[in-house]
Design brief:
The complex is a heterodimer of chains A (284) and B (421). Chain A has 284 residues and is an all-alpha fold. Chain A contains eleven helices and two strands; from the N terminus they run αββαααααααααα. Classes of the chains: A mainly alpha (284), B alpha/beta (421).
Chain lengths: 284, 421
């Protein structure tokens, strides 16, 4: 009897230890670092300098807002592109469902960085996309896509699309087809059946997809540095520069916490607005 | 130098695919100046969480005291940038043949800032960094290492080749007066490169980078020091003597250039491919990259040392004070200054060697191999002012702004505001 009580706890112990060691400890360390003052030469001293946060926000509010905006645009694009794909695979995929899923995951076998760099060739001024459009006169000669905000947002959406498709697919795939049949029996047209039955059932999947795209896209720095130009810097680039180049650990840490806070607020208000109260259950 | 401080993911992919002779450890298209950022970032993150970021200054032992009890150990560990030596490690084999000392060569320096982040906590604790000899640019990191007292004072009696063969520009540099702690490994020029397919006039000055005719087609470097230098030179200020007011004026000029839409983007190491395919018409560039691109891809990119001047940066050899084999390390330093060895290195690296005599040696090698492909390549290189700058070029080359840690922060944030808009 005793054993049976202890076993479940014993089983989760490694996970707790893992999280405590590799999540709680570093985040605690970073929180304390964010309140220090000093530099690499003299060392950093704990002075509970809340001013670091004020500095971080007042200097970088533009990049912070831009990151949230780019992240939101990319997330919306992912839903717009990914939802129909997930729907199609779940309901029309037939015996080839797993093949289609594999095809969606296939680009992930190539390094994230290389995939993004290959977009430079696609979007180049005389590249595969713009070259033909320019030669037939659909696009003016001086038009450029690479090193602009749309390029960064497109790159983000491209890189994180599968994270949107997979959770939506998982929910739709599990859905009982008889629910749709019942809707039709109750005189719902295809549109009504979608809006009143399929969409509500799939919302937890969409929510999971948003979590998995909005958070990483908002804090991404690769796309902005590879595909961005002037006035396209995201907050991830700033954090990276402050940590690795300026060795300004306190400012970098405080920006990190500001971003984390904003993302949490965003996610929870989205959960509220959409009525997905069980935020933590959506992955189940 | 402190360019490439930004861990950067951008590499010309296609160009890389056409190159076979590069080390397999490096992503396609990375020349020695290109970095694997992922590795650098991870290392730095690790270092950060491990170190708790203290920074204690230590007093370097006087040179004689330090060297008095040091003996040769028969092996050493050498940290260098990727592609800074051929994959056979020819020069190290020659070193082992001539001295019997084995070298464990690691291409571990991917990026100056993150490499500093990796070794700094160990040096602060007095621990072995894992390296006995390393190569870092004359940037902020080197200044910090010197200021913190983390480098061994070199015993110049052990460097006879350096005394005999190093060029005058590579002795007594501004960033390390008297070469107390470092000797140059290789140098390069930051100048302007342009693609004559798109630019139909001769580019001669930094002011050309501000010409509205090239709107959206100009590349600038993202590194604070590099871009500051160009702003300063445009204003007629020598970077090494610049003051806070000069920096602010330079930043203002650079901001105007950016906000007029002339700058397409700020680049780290990845300006070659856009310059080749026409996304960029002209850009700030490193001499060696342009030389290689033209030599290997048959492109006709032009590189100029602008009228206002350009900067000469140097990657330097140095010994960390916790080195386990300083005698072996300084012996290798000396060996690399042998003109034959320096010539072999230069043939592969295509940047500027601190041994001017290598030009003659290279010409002799070219004569010996006359008619062969290698002979032609050697001849071309021996005659190139990108690899062996002329006296006139050297007149126009300046050193970097040299800053103490406190001023660095101010300086960097002033210019990062421009590049990270």
């Amino acid at each position: 009897m005793r054993n049976r009580k202890i076993t479940p706890y014993a089983l989760v112990l490694p996970a707790w230890a893992w999280l405590a060691l590799f999540f709680v400890v570093p985040i605690g360390g970073m929180l304390s670092l964010s309140l220090t003052t000093g530099n690499v030469i003299t060392g950093f001293e704990q002075s509970f300098a809340v001013g670091n946060y004020v500095d971080a926000v007042s200097t970088y509010w533009e990049q912070i807002l831009r990151s949230l905006f780019y992240g939101a645009c990319a997330t919306v694009l992912c839903i717009a592109i990914g939802y129909p794909v997930a729907y199609w695979i779940a309901f029309k995929g037939g015996p080839y469902k797993s093949t289609y899923l594999l095809l969606i995951l296939l680009p992930f076998f190539v390094s994230f960085v290389l995939r993004t760099i290959s977009w430079r060739f696609l979007l180049s001024d005389n590249g595969v996309v713009l070259g033909p459009l320019k030669s037939v006169g659909l696009v003016p000669e001086g038009f450029a896509l690479l090193n602009s905000a749309p390029a960064v947002i497109l790159g983000l959406a491209y890189n994180f699309l599968p994270f949107m498709i997979l959770p939506i697919y998982a929910v739709l795939e599990r859905m009982d087809p008889r629910m749709v049949e019942a809707a039709h029996d109750l005189y719902a047209g295809r549109f009504q059946a979608f809006v009143r039955v399929i969409l509500p059932v799939s919302l937890p999947g969409v929510f999971a997809g948003v979590l998995m795209t909005f958070i990483p896209t908002s804090s991404d720095y690769v796309n902005a540095s590879v595909l961005g130009g002037t006035h396209n810097t995201m907050i991830g680039n700033v954090i990276q520069t402050q940590y690795l180049i300026n060795n300004n650990y306190p400012i970098a840490s405080s920006i990190t916490f500001v971003l984390m806070g904003l993302l949490l607020i965003g996610i929870f208000s989205y959960a509220r607005a959409l009525g997905t109260e069980r935020v933590m259950e959506v992955h189940a | 130098m402190s360019n490439r401080p930004r861990p950067n993911l951008n590499t010309p992919l296609l160009r890389g695919l056409t190159r076979a002779r590069r080390s397999p450890l490096v992503l396609p298209g990375m020349t020695r100046r290109r970095t694997l950022q992922a590795g650098g970032a991870a290392a730095a993150a690790l270092a950060l969480s491990a170190c708790g970021v203290g920074g204690q200054q230590r007093d370097p032992a006087a040179s004689e005291d330090y060297w008095a009890d040091k003996e040769q150990t028969g092996s050493l560990r050498f940290a260098n940038w990727p592609l800074y030596m051929d994959s056979e490690r020819t020069q190290l084999q020659q070193f082992t043949e001539s001295t019997g000392i084995e070298v464990d060569y690691k291409e571990d320096v991917q990026e100056a800032a993150s490499f500093f982040g990796q070794i700094q906590p160990r040096l602060a604790n007095g621990d072995d960094t894992g390296y006995d000899l390393m190569v870092l640019p004359n940037g902020f990191e080197l200044a910090k290492l010197i200021e913190l007292g983390y480098l061994v004072q070199l015993d110049h009696t052990k460097l006879p080749n350096y005394a005999e063969y190093a060029g005058e520009s590579y002795k007594n540099t501004a960033y390390d007066p008297g070469n107390q702690f470092t000797v140059p490994y290789t140098s390069g020029i930051t100048g302007i490169a342009y693609n004559p397919e798109y630019v139909d006039r001769e580019i001669t000055s930094i002011a050309d980078l501000w010409d509205p005719a090239f709107e959206g087609k100009v590349g600038m470097m993202g590194d604070a020091q590099e871009i500051a230098n160009f702003g300063l030179l445009l204003n007629g200020v020598n970077p090494a003597d610049s003051t806070l007011e000069d920096w602010e004026a330079a930043a203002e000029k650079l901001r105007e250039q950016r906000d007029a839409g002339i700058v397409r983007a700020y680049y780290d190491q990845d300006f070659i491919q856009p310059l080749t395919n026409g996304d960029l018409w002209m850009t700030m560039a490193w001499s060696g990259d342009i030389y290689q691109q033209n030599a290997e891809e048959g492109t006709n990119l032009k590189f100029v040392v602008p009228d206002e001047g350009a900067t000469l940066w140097t990657d330097n050899l140095m010994i960390p004070y916790t080195s386990q084999a300083p005698v072996d390390a300084i012996e290798l330093m000396n060996f690399l200054y042998d003109p034959e060895i320096a010539t072999g290195l230069t043939e592969y690296i295509a940047y500027i060697t601190p041994v001017p005599h290598a030009q003659e040696v290279m010409a002799e090698w070219a004569d010996a191999e006359d008619g062969s492909e290698r002979g032609e390549a050697l001849r071309e290189m021996a005659e190139s002012s990108l690899v062996f700058p002329t006296e006139g070029d050297y007149q126009k080359l300046h050193n970097y702004v040299n800053l103490e840690a406190d001023a660095q922060e101010e300086f960097a944030s002033l210019f990062h505001e421009i590049t990270q808009s």
